[in-house]
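Session log. Operator J.P. requested a structure for one protein chain; no other inputs attached. Running the standard single-chain path with token output.
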Amino acid sequence: MTTDSEINRYHVRAGEGQSGARLDVFLAQAVPGLSRSWLKKLITKGHVTCDAIPVKDPACRVKSGQSFHILAPEQEEVAPKPQDIHLHIVYEDDQLIIVNKPAGLVVHPAPGNPDRTLVNALLAHCGESLSGIGDIERPGIVHRLDKDTSGLMIAAKTNTAHTALAKQFASHSMERAYLAVVRGVLSPPQGEIGGNIGRNPKNRKKMAILPRGGKPALTRYSLIRPLGKSKPQVSSLVECRPATGRTHQIRVHMMKLGHPLVGDRLYGRAWCPVGIPDNAATAITAFKRQALHATMIAFKHPTSSKKLKFEQEIPLDMNELIFYLDNI
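Structure written below.
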């Protein structure tokens, strides 16, 4: 590695034993002064080039002999500040905390959401005990839920807990169940769907099942019951159990099955059954988030190894949606 410290330029060449490594991981190991999270931002912003061509995918695989040039301005990472935001705490001990995240709450600071996140709330509640093993912007966060998905989330309060919980999540031994309201009625009523998930090449805000690249994803699903009095029913309540944890996984998989989540404007257009009473139509069209709730989580306690299981009922807004769909 060569460096020009005045303008923060770095030149890194991949050796024989580094072929196949993720670009962000390789660069973080090669340039100790730059964190992986900061390198991810530099890569996505086009500040990392190979043969004078920007490489904008942090997950792309390095090949032996490739040379990378990094233009790195001073790091702008700022640790999030504690903010007094109400938390619905389901369980807490000296190692971890489990919260019931409401829809609309962003998990951690990011561009467009610099504060008023779950992390800010956790910092205010847990103080210095929150695990610092993760990204500076995501202390304690083991897994995430989309902004508009409600339900159970774990955060680690110690580095020991963070490491142990992250291993369970990565090995898929952490059990999770979600309840979803989807369009149509699944047939067959249960099954599984897989395929590699990655960024949609036509819309970077969306994920998609890709023929090449991406990461393996698997969701098992089962029909709980159709919703509605008329036949055929136009929607149903479904349980989804993701075996992996990819971004937007359940939303992508349900769309691929032809049953997008009600309220999901990103993966399914605005929807309302025709010929229904005005009050029901108003309630359904007013539901502005994906109808998805993390209802169960089970795992081994990071220090005692005791099996813990927590469940959380569907929130009021989804219950109201189900009520109106069930009565049309």
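Operator note: The chain has a mean pLDDT of 91.
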